[in-house]
Design brief:
Length: 199
Amino acid sequence: MQTHTAAPRRLIVAITGATGAIYGIRLLETLRRLGGVESHLLISSAGWLNIQHELRLSKEDVHPLADVVHSVRDVGASVASGSFATDGMVVAPCSMKTLASVAHGFSDNLITRAADVTLKERRRLVLLVRETPFNLAHLRNMTAVTEMGGVIFPPLPAFYNQPASIDEMVDHTVARVLDLFALGPALAPAWAGLRGAQE
Ligand SMILES: Cc1cc2nc3c(=O)[nH]c(=O)nc-3n(C[C@H](O)[C@H](O)[C@H](O)COP(=O)(O)O)c2cc1C
C-alpha cells in the first residue's frame, strides 16, 4: 500500500531594493521563532544594498535566518518550478521594478520567476509594495497583479493598536502578512471594536 506523507510547509521570502528591508528580515525571524515552516530566501542586489545601508547586516548575519538561500541568478533552483510545492511567496519589501516585472510575467531573475510560478500555480503571492507617491504605472501594475490573484500589501503602519516603537509597527505588519497564510497562532490581537479596546 502506498503511503502519503504531508508536504512540508514552505514559504518563499524575497527581499528587493525598496526601503524597508526590516520587513523581510523580521518575517524570517518570526518564521524561525514559530517553527514548522521551511523558508526559502531570495535577495536582489538592490535588496542587499538596502539591508547593508538600513540595517548594517551582512550575508553572514542574514543567511542563517533562512533554511535555504538561493541566488537570484539561479533560475534553475527548486523554487523556479511549480512542481516544487510551497504555501506561497512574500516579497518584503517589493520595489516598483519587481512589481512591474511580476505584473508583466517578465521572470528576469529567480525572484520574478518564483513569483510568476506562485501565480500560475494559484498559490498565495503577497507583495509588500513600497513607493510614495505612486505613478499610474505603479497603480496599473498593482491592479494587474491583483487581477491575477496576488495580494498587494503596502506595509502601512497601523495606529489603532497604539504601537510604542518602530519594532511594534513592523511586528504588526508581519503578523498580518502571516495571517494571510494561516501561519502560526495569531501574532497580532484581532480588533475587538472600540469598546473592546477600552476595556
Ligand atoms: C536607498 C534606496 C532606497 C530605495 N527605495 C525604493 C523604494 O522605496 N521603492 C522602490 O520602488 N524603489 C526604491 N529604490 C530603487 C530600487 O532599489 C531600484 O529600482 C532597483 O533597481 C530595484 O531592483 P530590485 O527590484 O531587483 O531589487 C531604492 C533604492 C535605494 C538605493
